[in-house]
Amino acid sequence: EEGTAKSLLNNVNDNLRKVEEAVNVELSCFAPQAVRCSLKDLVPYNLTEGWSEEAKAEFCSVVGCAAVEMRPLGQDRDSLLVDLRKAPMEQSTDVPFSVREYLVFVEVARFYSPVTLGRRPLMYYPPVYPEASKELDAVVCHINNLSDFYIQLVDNMESLLLSAKLQDCYNALSEDKRRVYCPVIGQACVARFEDELWYRAQVIGHPGGRKVEVRYVDFGNKQILSVSDLRKIKDEFFALPAMVRAHQNT
């Protein structure tokens, strides 16, 4: 133990240097470059146990070494209260997400006051409805009940082309590319269905357990799946309106 302590002391001495007085005076003009921060309104998921190693690991994984957007939200004693957002990619449909909301979503943290910040996600263009009294060929693609079902128009060949392009694009991507960290209610995305194919979807719920509820906008059905089965949608797939028309009696 004595040898180990001496070795550590030698390593410290090898990396320490005295600063000359003239240099010390010059350096004193610069404020410390590191600012102590705290994520505003965030507390450990389990208050009795405090911050877990899992929470730290999730925070490190999502922040990484890349620059993030910072929003100062106040000050508390010696800490700056902030929210951090992942910088958007070049895709216009890539909504920046709050690191605080991500940590709450993966259940390593909780909010202790209401959250009012956030940006509304971009949503799909609504489907184009046919003219009244016009006869068309259609396929019923999903039924909730007799007053709530969805159809696709048979002569709409865009759906076949869209499906093929989706599979080609998203099967070629690695799991980390275009990953959705913190899905926002209403967010347009691409989701994997139980047939292992990719479809356009919209986030409609947060059931918990790192699960997300989506509605497949080109078919009308809903599904609860893991957030790992979501991907950010590319502009070329976002531009087309939803393929299904909802028929509801009110």
TrEMBL record:
Domain Tudor: 182-240
Pfam name, any one: TUDOR
InterPro entries named among the record's database cross-references: SNase_OB-fold_sf (IPR035437), Tudor (IPR002999)
This protein's name: Tudor domain-containing protein
Species of provenance: Goodea atripinnis
